[in-house]
From TrEMBL:
Domain named Anti-sigma K factor RskA C-terminal: residues: 99-225
Species: Roseovarius pelagicus
Pfam families: RskA_C
Protein name: Anti-sigma factor
Residues annotated as transmembrane: 92-115
């Protein structure tokens, strides 16, 4: 929403609404999220907007279309075709015998996450956030799995300076930042959020600071705040 389309001055309430709706430019988003870290009143405005917009879908009942409807649509478009075997659907039509059984076991194991070398992003996260530096030098995506209290993090850009560490913080309302742990050097990781802090994700802000190895020795950020991002419902 551009200023020339508005019959009124853009105050913080309107700004918070445009941020919640995703109407700001990348530069405006970076400026707004930097203010979120410093201004509790602005965080309250954002939380109110997020709650109001999320409530608009409360009365809508989710309906899953029946399986036969998909089959009917595919038949109308492509005609009647022979159903592929399980091996063909898995792309293993060339495999047979005991090798086929082993191949199926591997595919099932991969789909179930049994052999995953890295954590997997939740399929249905309760909250998400993009924690980003104003200049894009550090970008970390976060997704929270409410079922097990795990916060999936993926570092898309940047990293810790030599001999330093990146520490993740949660800022909930007017409360002081609380450490969620030091981010590992791996690009993808999962952090368990303590039960006492999980409610603070709703309307909260995530921030990353530059700290000595092992994290802040004081329980509060001691280095520069490198990136911030507001937590929003997925």
């Amino acid at each position: 929403m551009s200023d020339d389309q508005q019959p009124y001055d853009r105050d913080d309430r309107v700004l918070a609404g445009e941020y919640t709706l995703g109407l700001l430019t990348p530069e405006e988003v970076s400026t707004f999220e930097a203010r979120l870290v410093r201004e509790p009143e602005l965080r309250a405005l954002y939380a109110a907007w997020a709650e109001d917009l999320a409530g608009m879908t409360d009365g809508i009942t989710e309906v899953r279309p029946p399986r036969h409807l998909q089959n009917q649509i595919e038949t109308q478009i492509f005609g009647v075709t022979e159903k592929p075997t399980l091996m063909q659907r898995l792309g293993l039509g060339w495999v047979s015998g005991s090798l086929a059984a082993a191949a199926v076991a591997v595919v099932i194991g991969l789909n179930a996450g049994l052999f995953d070398p890295v954590p997997r992003a939740p399929n249905d996260p309760a909250y998400v956030a993009q924690i980003a530096a104003e200049d894009g030098s550090l970008i970390v995506q976060a997704a929270y799995d409410a079922e097990n209290g795990a916060l999936f993090v993926q570092r898309d850009a940047g990293g810790a300076a030599d001999g330093r560490a990146l520490e993740l913080w949660l800022i909930a309302g007017d409360n002081a930042p609380v450490s969620l742990g030091v981010l590992p050097e791996d690009q993808i990781a999962s952090l368990t959020i303590p039960e006492a802090l999980r409610a603070g994700l709703d309307g909260g802000v995530l921030a990353i600071s530059d700290e000595p190895p092992g994290g802040s020795p004081t329980g509060a950020p001691t280095g520069a705040v490198l990136a911030v991002g507001a937590v929003s419902p997925a």
